[in-house]
Amino acid sequence: MSYFDETQLNLDKEEPIILGIESSCDETAAAVIKGRKILSDEIASSATVQAKFGGVVPEIASRAHTDEVEKVVLRAVKNAGITLQDIDAIAVTYGAGLLGALLVGVSFAKALAYALKKPLIAVNHIRGHISAAYLDSASLKPPFVTLLASGGHTAVLYSETEAQFEILGATLDDAAGEAFDKVARVLGLQYPGGPNIGRLALEGQPTVAMPKMFKGSGGYNFTYSGLKTAVINYCHTKDQKGEPYSKADVAASFQCAAVDVLVKKTIGAAEEKGVKTITVGGGVAANDYLRTSLAKECKKRGFTLVLPEKRYCTDNAAMIAAEGLVQYRLGNFADMSLTAKASIPLAATLVTPQSKRRKVD
Q: Phi/psi of residue 238, each to 5°?
């Protein structure tokens, strides 16, 4: 027997209302969308507390989620001007991320879906980053190329349909966001590293020689371990010799090396695939240098760039709701056996026995 009322299910509804819940790291988030329109977007972050430890402490994050999840969800529903019964489906991040943190969101979403008799949608966090672009452009339709750059993943993707994408290339080691955080620690900057490196880089010049990752080779793959090591070696060598150096110049040089290759390979992929639209997702997409560089190249080469607002590039629930909308229209629903997973394949979409999955042409 289904836990939700299948007689009330309308997969062809023009603007279904989706509640999204996100708890994969240090932010408890809930958002409500109606079609592609964001009705509300609420976030409670423990980043200030985490900064004291130089990064995210999983146990502290899990406790913060437990304290905040109900309050954040109810606030999102209230601010959306709807009731819980108005919701057509509940989408929740089930992976990838911190296992304890994910379990809080998944457990709450399951309980809420069961109590309301509403469909539950399991969302891959990374697919959520891709779907954030749909919230920025009401007319966006595949095919398009996506640059995904986050703390855990860096990849260039080709979306043929809303439900299917091809991984053209990915990082072979560290993700771009991970490299930003590690370099920030070397430079004595607080967590989160990405924004702090961006601010420091504005004060410097890219005058420090950095390795060019897969320049002219490697297809659309990336590697950041060598770049990270180059920064560490440069700073340590200067410190050991007692030689002064500009941390701002190091930050600017690292940022250029890390970002320029992302822009170059994304443009190259779009040209090869013959698409006219490029989208961007993931926390690194909030970096001003990346946003400016990619916009400049897209304008020069005639591409349409869909670049979500910064708040929808970092972890948020609106993007989870946006991917939930994609899965809702496919009729892909989870059952009450859903559980959190710390690691899942980049392209994974959970299909369970509860699914009413449609075939995609």
A: -65, -40
Could you give the angle at which helices 247-273 and 193-201 cross, rounded to 10 degrees? 110
Distance (Å, whole) CA 352 – CA 246: 54
Spacing of C-alpha 74 from chain mean position: 23
Rounded Cα distance, 246 and 250, in Å: 6
Phi and psi, residue 58, nearest 5°: -55, -40
Amino acid in the structure at residue 275: V
Query: φ and ψ at 91, to 5 degrees?
Result: -105, 135
Beta-sheet strands, E only, within 117-233: 120-124, 144-149, 154-159, 165-170
- Angstrom distance (rounded) from CA 182 to CA 65: 25
Q: Is the peptide bond before 47 cis (omega within 30 degrees of 0)?
A: no
Q: What's the predicted TM-score (pTM) here?
A: 0.90
**Nearest-CA neighbor of 303 among 294, 293, 312, 313?**
294
Determine if the peptide bond prior to 206 is cis (ω within 30°).
no
CA 291 to chain CA centroid, nearest Å? 15
Give the H/E segment covering residue 65.
helix 58-79
One-character DSSP codes across 275-313: -SEEEEESGGGG-HHHHHHHHHHHHHHT-EEE---GGGT
pLDDT of the chain along its 361 residues, tens only? Answer: 489 878 788 899 999 999 999 999 888 999 999 999 999 999 997 666 656 666 677 788 889 899 999 999 999 999 999 999 999 999 999 999 999 999 999 999 999 999 999 999 999 998 999 999 999 998 999 999 999 998 888 999 999 998 888 999 999 999 999 999 999 999 999 888 899 999 999 999 999 999 987 655 678 999 999 999 999 999 999 999 999 999 999 999 999 999 999 999 999 999 999 999 999 999 999 999 999 999 999 999 999 999 999 999 999 999 999 999 999 999 999 999 999 999 988 766 655 544 455 543 3
Cβ proximity of 119 and 90 under 8 Å: yes
Can you spell out the DSSP letters for 8-34? Answer: G--TT-SS-EEEEEE-SSSEEEEEEEE
How many distinct helices (H) and strands (E) make up the chain?
10, 10
Assess contact for 253 and 208: CB atoms under 8 A: yes
